[in-house]
Specification:
- The structure holds 2 protein chains of 2 kinds.
- In chain A, strand 5 and strand 6 form a beta hairpin.
- Chain A is an all-alpha fold.
- Chain A has 33 helices and 8 strands.
- In chain A, helix 1 crosses helix 2, helix 2 runs antiparallel to helix 6 and helix 14 runs antiparallel to helix 21.
- By secondary structure, chain B is of the alpha/beta class.
- Chain B has 2 domains: 90 residues; 345 residues, Alkaline Phosphatase, subunit A.
- Chain B contains 13 helices and 18 strands.
- In chain B, strands 1, 4, 5, 6, 7, 8, 9, 12, 13 and 16 form a 10-stranded mixed sheet that branches. Chain B has a two-stranded antiparallel sheet with strand order 2-3. Chain B has a two-stranded antiparallel ribbon with strand order 10-11.
- In chain B, strand 6 and strand 7 form a beta hairpin.
- In chain B, helix 11 runs parallel beside helix 12.
- The chains are: A mainly alpha, B alpha/beta.
- At the A-B interface, helix 17, helix 27, helix 28, helix 31 and helix 32 of A face helix 2, helix 6, helix 8 and helix 9 of B.
């Protein structure tokens, strides 16, 4: 009976209702009856849970179906339906479940008869008597603008304020203990909580600490003598010697490579070899060795290609943007493109500014004053930057060809000869001749000079992607830095035929930028003192930590800028402080302080990182090859990385910074010792104690080989002489009486074959070796 | 030494300090879930207490990963209309995003029959699994978001097809710790090296304690945990060496006046030594009875390789490893589907059925959650003449034990098996459900990183209550 009535109504509706506006009252009544009878119950049962004022959390997709205006206005994807037009109505497409991107209700497809009800309803003009509710707070979809974020309030946050002018405490009032302003600040800080600094470390310990801190190698491998020089400026002289060593750039370049999440492959799916990425790594090492001012370093990495008379090195520098992790095999090219843009925004923000812009991709930042509009302002800059040259499966990335013209020509000739040699129509003689000439030319032609880096793309503004999806686009946003930063330094109000990347780079590298210098000096502090003044080194936003000593941070940031952004100069300041030279033993009472909040009055003990450990083991075995630079990856351009080479790479005697890093196939021993995962910037490696580290020290070939080498190279005679040599090399000190008697007892009773190798292994595995006292 | 570990645990350290310094390399901190937020991420944030997790149904997980994407319509999702309409065009739209060009509908070359009391329809290339269907909770409406191996594999393992995130095994370790500190808590046996490789067992931004441990063939072609044995002489000599090391470390410790990290490292060597003692025994399959070996198919060259892995998985699970993954490959039949699916099924079918049976016999199935499936399914339409393309839009996985309803088939795809249309279960829902069975609320298991709280389920995921026992 019911269905019969419905059928009558439907028939009537189909006949008579063409345009709802013109419908006569009687017809409309029938339409309303149909709605009330069939459509409203269906909407209530199947749709209201997410698309009405009753929705549990938020209105899904911004679409409301509990009053007529709701579907007329529609959601993020536009009006939900067009009265009379079944085939073009989104609502119908969704319930039919034939489009994987639009299937509603999400858990279960409606029955065929239920779909039929909605189709009929739309076909007959979608008559809907429901008016908008009286009080309605939920009609607006989620905010995509700045209306919920108070920018002025946001600007007052400490890290968005320019560094404050600080009064440096006078050195003379701090007695003879203080070496420089850092010490004066800290003495005042400690005095406030009644702490006194720990005693200074032994000279030998300090040399070992400095050697590892500045070069990542033990003093023995660097040729530093066991006896410290007996002169007042002995420490300065060691520091200067270490800063001048090429080993310095290898060590500090590696720190920056953590931040720039460097690797030699894309690593996400089809793992392609970034055969040119090594040039970026070498650029970073050279920049540190040459003490390239950090503002220049930042600008070159973001936009070196856009500088006037851009050099090869400056193009190489943009590898910063290019060497990140990427899906190169994605069937959805728009997703691929936006994911790469997102990765670049995230890395640039965290590396230089300590800002987590990536959080604003799908919604306004929950904590920091950054809106989705701000995010897509940045996205426009990176969308206008060419990183890939196509979005195929597998996609190809952009490379410069900087080969000299004659070499490029030679390669063209080789290609031409190859075609001739393979030309089936030519005579055998001609083909052989071409092959001969091709071989001869190829053998004397160097490879093309390719550089992995970004360049300008077609200039475009981004539109806001509602909830991060390119299927629901909002308003167009000009290419800009976030509004919260629209003061000093100025970012151009309008960009024309340029991406804005150079402007972004200059804005980052500006002396007025409130974040860049602070973020850098904080990282330098972290790498020397074990924990940053802001302990969240990569997050200077609201969820980051406040500075434990804001004036000291601002003083250092100002010093950096005034010292022409020289990193070495800043490191000299840090490492010549009396504070740096303290022992690792906390003075009484100090260990109980909440060191998350206050600065310790001793030097926190740091563990050798993965690379320092491996390089030490090679160095102490006398096997370390100190040649610099170059490509160790064996893979050919345009090919997948061959993982079967990984074990071979690790046996190469080169410093660890040169060992190829294949994303998603990291070295177990490196991972165990907390090597940074190259999938995201990391300025604060952990120093964990985990069992795989112990297993490595007990069982790895590398440790056993080094111990055997050490045992073999001991002096021929004398227990004392042998032990002094061993302790000197490994711990930079002579053996103590206790060491001697312990070793004697061990060697006498050891049941294995080579007691000296076992002794060396034990020292290598000891805390005194693995940590810097 | 054991006592020093216990003593160490009782120190009033922050959880961050514990994480950084604990000897509990493989998660010996049995911080039964979520005691406090990790301060490493919250930095100065409060160590807010968390609600105690609910009573878990499952204590451990075995994930049988079918790398490549097994075809649902040839294994568990019987589609008579697909057979009937073989060769006809698909009567509805293809997905907006596809991997490759495909043609018309391709009926399954295999025959389906109903089995067990549950009456589940299973393909005839799975005779052994057909016999245990009453123990399986078959979900025929799984869907993911990515149609390429790399993205799909990453999404299945980490919840994200965009950037590397912690693997589900790492999250579970983070939430629950380990039940046996002498073994790694998250093992993956013979995992894929490609398609994201280590991303599938990486702890990513979670601390290194939660890193998965890969077991691969060593130089002697034995499956082994890395660095579990070395060139060291005898156990006795190594013990002597470790005693010397301990004396050195104690001496040093007394000189420098105490440091939790240094103390933790002392304990860590002791732990490593105990692992060395225990792991080889767990990995020694020769102690299994002849009937068990036969059950898994250890004596048949076709089934032996995967049987070894499944048996190892059971032994590790039994010994307290929280999350064990084994991988069977390579179910990516863009062509020659009939031949290769038949071969792959013959390698996988018996060992997996045996694992279910064995776990049940030992009373382990009740609190062990078994999960079987690939990174996606395959299209009901043909690729080339005799293959199928990737299809993340609707495919089958099954669960067993661990508090799931046995003997049910949940969800449905459309009449041809292309799209999940009824009781759809996204990977996020699967993850949420898995955590729920382990006693963890997926919305509360968070870790603060890069400015926000991350979850295995991102901002998605609903527990599928219908499949809970």
């Amino acid at each position: 009976m019911v269905s019969k009535l419905a059928a009558v109504i439907v028939t009537l509706a189909l006949i008579s209702v063409r345009t709802p506006a013109a419908s006569a009252d009687g017809e409309s009544e029938l339409g309303v009856a149909y709605f009330e009878k069939h459509v409203r119950p269906l909407l209530i049962e199947k749709c209201y849970q997410c698309h009405s004022a009753e929705a549990d959390a938020k209105i899904e997709g911004g679409l409301r179906l509990d009053f007529r205006g709701g579907w007329e206005k529609g959601g993020d994807s536009g009006p939900a339906l067009v009265p009379g037009k079944v085939e073009t109505s989104l609502l119908i497409r969704a319930v039919r479940y034939r489009d994987p991107d639009l299937q509603m209700p999400p858990k279960k497809k409606l029955s065929d008869s239920q779909i039929g009800v909605l189709e009929q309803w739309v076909a007959q003009g979608a008559i809907d008597p429901r008016e908008a509710p009286q009080t309605d707070h939920a009609v607006e979809p989620e905010s995509t603008g700045a209306n919920l974020i108070d920018i002025d309030e946001g600007r007052r946050f400490w890290s968005f304020q320019p560094p404050q002018e600080v009064e440096v405490p006078s050195l003379t009032t701090h007695g003879s203990w203080a070496s420089n302003a850092i010490d004066a600040f800290l003495l005042d800080h400690w005095k406030d909580r009644g702490a006194a600094p720990a005693p200074p470390a032994a000279p030998g310990q300090l040399v070992r600490r400095l050697a590892y801190a500045l070069t990542g190698l033990p003093p023995a491998t660097l040729g530093l003598p066991l006896e410290a020089e007996d002169r007042p400026d002995a420490r300065e002289r060691v520091i200067d010697r270490l800063l001048a060593s090429p080993r310095y750039g290898e060590r500090w370049g590696r720190h920056w490579l953590d931040v720039s999440r460097f690797a030699d492959s894309n690593g996400m799916d089809e793992n392609m070899a970034y055969v040119q990425a090594y040039r970026y790594r070498d650029y970073v090492i050279d920049a540190f060795n040459a003490d390239l001012p950090f503002d220049r370093f930042a600008i070159e990495q973001v936009a070196g290609d856009l500088l006037e008379r851009s050099t090869m090195a400056q193009k190489v520098a943009t590898g910063f943007l290019a060497v990140g992790p990427k899906m190169l095999a994605c069937d959805d090219p728009q997703k691929m493109r936006m994911d790469i843009v997102d990765e670049q925004i995230d890395t640039t923000g965290r590396a230089f500014l300590g800002m987590t812009f990536g959080c604003a991709r799908c919604h306004d930042h929950k904590f920091d004053p950054v809106t989705t509009k701000d995010y897509y302002g940045l996205a426009g800059i990176f969308m206008s930057t060419k990183t890939l040259v196509n979005y195929k499966v597998v996609a190809k990335w952009h490379e410069y060809d900087l080969s000299p013209p004659e070499i490029r020509e030679a390669h063209e000739t080789i290609a031409k000869l190859r075609r001739e040699a393979e030309d089936k129509k030519a005579s055998q003689e001609a083909r052989d001749g071409a092959r001969e000439r091709m071989k001869a030319l190829a053998s004397k032609t160097p490879p093309l000079t390719k550089v992995m880096g970004v360049t300008e793309n077609e200039i475009t503004n981004a539109r806001v992607h509602l909830r991060g999806s390119y299927l629901t686009l909002g308003e167009e946003t000009p290419r800009q830095v976030p509004v919260v930063f629209h003061r000093e330094p100025q970012f151009p109000a309008a960009l024309e035929n340029q991406s804005g990347r150079l402007e972004l780079a200059r804005w980052i590298g500006s002396a007025e930028n409130p974040l860049t210098a602070r973020v850098l000096v904080n990282r330098l502090w972290r790498w020397h003192f074990g924990k940053g003044l802001v302990s969240s080194t990569d997050n200077f936003g609201k969820l980051g930590s406040p500075p434990r000593h804001a004036p000291l941070l601002d003083y250092l940031a100002t010093e950096l800028v005034q010292g022409d952004w020289s990193i070495k100069r800043m490191q000299r300041l840090l490492t010549t402080s009396a504070r740096y030279g303290l022992t690792t033993t906390p003075p009484p009472g100090e260990a109980e302080h909440d060191l998350e909040k206050v600065l310790p009055a001793y030097q926190p003990r740091q563990r050798l990182d993965a690379e320092s450990l491996r390089d030490s083991l090679l160095g102490l075995a006398g096997a370390l090859d100190l040649s610099m630079h170059g490509q160790l990856l064996k893979d050919q351009p345009g090919k997948y990385v061959n993982r079967s080479h990984l074990d071979d790479y690790l046996t190469l005697p080169r410093r660890s910074v040169y060992i190829p890093i294949v994303r998603s196939a990291l070295y177990g021993a490196f991972v165990a010792f907390d090597m940074a995962d190259p999938s995201a910037p990391n300025g604060d490696r952990r120093q964990s104690v985990v069992a795989p580290q112990s297993l490595y020290m007990m069982n790895s070939d590398r440790v056993h080989q080094t111990a055997a080498q050490l045992a073999e190279r001991l002096p021929a005679e004398g227990l004392r002489e042998k032990l002094d040599a061993l302790y000197g090399r490994l711990l930079h000190r002579p053996a103590s009486e206790a060491d001697v008697s312990r070793a004697q007892a061990f060697l006498a009773s050891y049941s294995g074959e080579d007691g000296w190798a076992a002794l060396a292994r034990a020292i290598l595995a000891s805390n005194e070796f693995l940590y810097l006292d | 030494m054991r006592s020093s570990l216990c003593h160490h645990r009782s120190l009033p350290l922050t959880r961050r300090a514990l994480l950084q310094q604990s000897a509990a390399g493989f998660g010996a901190l049995a911080f039964h879930g979520l005691l406090a937020k990790d301060a490493a991420a919250t930095t100065n944030g409060p160590l807010a207490p968390r609600p105690a997790p609910r009573e878990p149904k499952a204590k451990r997980v075995i994930f049988l990963f079918m790398h490549g994407g097994p075809s649902q319509v040839d294994l568990f999702d019987d589609k008579p209309r697909l057979t009937r309409d073989d060769g006809k065009p698909l009567p509805f739209d293809m997905p907006r995003i596809v991997s490759s060009k495909t043609g018309n509908l391709l009926g399954s070359p295999f025959h389906f029959a109903r089995h067990g009391q549950s009456g589940a329809s299973v393909s005839d290339i799975l005779p052994h699994l057909s016999r245990v269907v009453d123990d399986l909770c078959i979900i025929r409406s799984i869907h993911g978001s990515n149609s390429r191996h790399g993205g799909a594999l990453l999404e299945l393992h980490t919840g994200s097809d965009t950037f590397p995130r912690p693997a589900m095994g790492s999250w579970i370790q983070y939430g629950l710790g380990t039940a046996n500190e002498n073994l790694p808590g998250f093992l993956t046996i013979n995992p894929p090296g490609g398609h994201g490789g280590a991303n599938a067992w990486s702890s990513s931004f979670l601390p290194a304690h939660y890193q998965g441990t890969r077991i691969a063939k060593n130089k002697e072609s034995r499956l082994e945990i890395p660095f579990m044995s070395g060139p060291a002489a005898s156990r006795r000599a190594q013990r002597e060496e470790l005693a010397l090391l301990e004396a050195m470390n104690r001496d040093h410790l007394s000189q420098v006046g105490g440091d939790p990290a240094l103390e933790a490292r002392l304990a860590s060597y002791e732990l490593a030594f105990r692992m060395q003692m225990e792991a080889p025994g767990v990995q020694d399959l020769s102690t299994e009875s002849a009937s068990t070996r036969a059950l898994y198919g250890m004596d048949d060259p076709t089934t032996a390789p995967f049987a070894e892995q499944c048996l190892l998985a059971r032994r590790f699970s039994e010994a307290g490893v929280r999350f064990v993954q084994v991988t069977h490959r390579y179910w990516d039949q863009h062509s020659k589907l009939e031949k290769d699916h038949r071969r792959l099924a013959s390698e996988m079918d018996r060992p997996v059925a045996a694992l279910i049976t064995d776990l049940k016999q030992r009373g382990l199935l009740d609190d062990t959650l078994v999960l079987w499936g690939g990174e996606f399914g395959r299209t009901p339409v043909a690729q080339g003449r005799d293959g199928r393309d990737h299809n993340p839009h609707g495919f089958t996985m099954f669960l067993a034990g661990g508090g799931t309803k046995p003997g049910i088939q949940y969800g449905n795809t459309d009449e041809y098996g292309f799209y999940a249309v009824e009781n759809r279960v996204h990977f996020h829902d699967l993850h949420a459900t898995m955590l729920h069975l382990l006693g963890i609320d997926h919305t509360k298991l968070t870790y603060r990183h890069a400015g926000r709280d991350f979850r295995l389920t991102d901002v998605y995921g609903e527990v599928v209550h219908d499949i809970l026992a």
